[in-house]
# Entry
Amino acid sequence: MFQPEEHIVVKEGDTFSELKQLPTNTFKLIISSPPYNLGKEYEKQVNLNHYLDWQRGIISELHRVVSDEGSIVWQVGNYVNEGEIFPLDVYFYPIFKSFNMQLRNRIVWHFDHGLHASNRFSGRYEVLLWFTKTKEYTFNLDPVRVPSKYPGKRHYKGNKIGQLSGNPLGKNPSDYWTLIGEEWETGIIDIPNVKSNHPEKTSHPCQFPIELIERCVLALTEEQDWVLDPFGGVGSSLIAAIKNNRKGMIIDQEPEYIEIAIQRINAFQAGTLKIRPLGKPIFTSTGKEKIAQIPTEWLTNQQDKLL
# Structure
């Protein structure tokens, strides 16, 4: 049974059934990446309309349990059937609107690594749909501002001459999140997806990077607010919540992922969990790394052949 005075809740079970037991108007932020109906090991692929009907039922319950000042952030990619792309954000938008929710941003999350396609261009972005329940909602821009390109720039004419032309705390990061390595120059955010060499990688095939959720937690909640992930996987959303002094809850039906989530939470509390730091620049190859690994003899032979 959900107890509001708790700070960390990990629930194993069917998402819809567990949501039905939660109190109304409770969570300031609900954030998740629902199954994409791609036939991953944790999902059974079904007809797209059946999938959307199932999601509509889930979203109905989410609308009930999110607070009046709260937000739902739904991170989705594409449903693929026989090589044809169906962009899920297009299908989810009318579902959320049917509950009178307001879309505040359609955030594009770009990443450089992923599966390579052979019959179409490789997908390198996903979408976060940020909906609010009402017109009065929590939004804190200052904790997620990025440094201005010209922080010392001042007005050169008018009644503000000599005053700083930009916010001294930085600028709005925009709705296109990429290239964190150039964040100081462009104000654009890059958050890599969790692949084999990512420090947070577990056995989950579609794992949330903690820093992606952190930006939403910081912007859309206050300290001690509740954050819920109804498809919690290995607990990244919960860790992002408690890391920033929020209360967190996840639901997942896979015992393996629940066990990993508990292990990760314990490791975080013990200070041993590996987490990619918020805002850390992404490694960019110079091209010299590969050359250094090529045997000198091979290079010499190739040069001889050219001559």
User: Anything to note?
Assistant: The beta strands are 8-12, 27-32, 66-76, 78-81, 84-87, 102-110, 125-132, 176-177, 226-229, 247-252. Residues 47 and 205 are 22 Å apart (CA to CA).
